[in-house]
Design brief:
Converts 2,5-diamino-6-(ribosylamino)-4(3h)-pyrimidinone 5'-phosphate into 5-amino-6-(ribosylamino)-2,4(1h,3h)-pyrimidinedione 5'-phosphate. It comes from Qingshengfaniella alkalisoli. With about 350 residues, the protein is α/β, with parallel strands linked by helices. The chain contains 12 helices and 16 strands.
Length: about 350
């Protein structure tokens, strides 16, 4: 199952709206087939592994990181494929809460006389499928918030200079993180100030994440790197309902996709934003937002993972903070995260935290 989980992880950022599943088929203590969900979400992991196993699948055991699907979508049910191949035993890490499955795949396998075991490496599978689970169960994507800051938590000098606080090794790791998410998210202020590309570079041929920019009034520069890269990376612009049709149509004519959501007096309703992204199929979002938007996401309880890159320089109180005003009166009201890992990346320190349960 651990091998199946590692295989499934290869699909992270490439399979949305489908989960990134891994499958290993074993017969007589020998691996005869293995697979993971392919880019675009199909073929599914089980189909890839069965194709590799061929006739050797008969009487074998299949290890799958998520319950095999039992509904007819754009491809036939994987549960039916396992049955037709003559699989004798299926070991599943995690049941699928999608209402179209939700135990139906396991029931179909058992009805066909297949021995089914569940809950193997369940915690690891829950982490691996956290984005898919968040979309199905909470109606929003899982959100990773990246912060690259000075030792004293600043992302730019008072004059706005920010490139580069962290070193090339840290930036290379960030590109790998982008590749494992469905989308990269920033606010309009960051888009205007930094003119970023938000693409994955230096990682070989990869499926580019969707670039998502939040701008209530769609007041973004047309002459930008985001627009110049539209030929190989999608651009979604999330804006308020009050934006005129002419402005929306001009952006759509350039190739961007415009998503209207509920606005507030100061910006966009970030919960409405995340729900809109989930409705479009996104499961994992990598936020590289500035301090104001980051604070809004934290206040709304939408940040599932904090990833910090801390550099060995000090900017001082006149620098721009990595996180804006949280309006906290008590420490008890501060969002808490638990450390998962920390390591040296070149001349910087990376530390990753997950939101504390409860």
């Amino acid at each position: 199952m651990q091998l199946a989980l590692s295989l499934g992880a290869r699909g992270l950022g490439n399979t949305w709206p489908n989960p990134a599943v891994g499958c290993v088929i074993v017969r007589d203590d020998r691996i005869v087939g293995r697979g993971w969900t392919q880019p675009g979400g199909r073929p599914h992991a089980e189909v890839v592994a069965l194709s590799q196993a061929g006739a050797a699948a008969k009487g074998a055991t299949a290890y799958v990181t998520l319950e095999p699907c039992s509904h007819h979508g754009k491809s036939p049910p994987c549960a039916d494929a396992l049955i037709a191949a003559g699989i004798a035993r299926v070991v599943v890490a995690l049941t699928d809460p999608d209402p179209r499955v939700d135990g139906g795949g396991l029931a179909g396998l058992r009805h066909a006389g297949i021995d089914v075991v569940t809950g193997v490496c369940e915690d690891a599978a829950r982490r691996s499928h956290s984005g898919f689970l968040s979309r199905v169960q909470q109606g929003r994507p899982m959100l990773s918030q990246k912060l690259a800051s000075s030792f004293d938590g600043r992302i730019a000098t008072g004059a706005g200079e920010s490139q580069w606080i962290t070193g090339p090794d840290a930036r290379r790791v960030v590109h790998g993180m982008r590749a494992r998410h469905d989308a990269v998210l920033i606010g309009g202020a960051t888009a205007r100030a930094d003119d970023p590309e938000l693409t994955v570079r230096g990682q070989g041929a990869v499926r580019q994440p969707v670039r998502v920019v939040l701008s209530r009034g769609l007041d973004l520069p047309v002459e930008s790197r985001l627009v110049r890269n539209l030929d190989h990376a999608q651009l979604w612009l999330v804006h308020g309902h009050t934006v005129g049709d002419a402005k929306v149509q001009s952006w759509e004519a350039l190739g961007a996709r415009c998503l209207p959501v509920l606005g507030t007096s100061t910006g966009l309703d970030v919960l409405a934003v995340m729900k809109a992204l989930a409705e479009q199929g996104l499961t994992r979002v990598f936020s590289e937002s500035g301090g104001t938007l980051t604070a809004s996401l934290l206040r709304a309880g939408l940040v599932d993972e904090l990833i910090g890159f801390s550099a060995g320089l000090v900017i001082g109180a006149d620098g721009r903070p990595s996180i804006g005003d949280m309006s906290l009166k008590r420490l008890a009201d501060a969002p808490r995260f638990d450390l998962q890992e920390s390591r040296v990346i070149g001349g910087d320190v990376m530390h990753r935290w997950v939101r504390r349960a409860g």
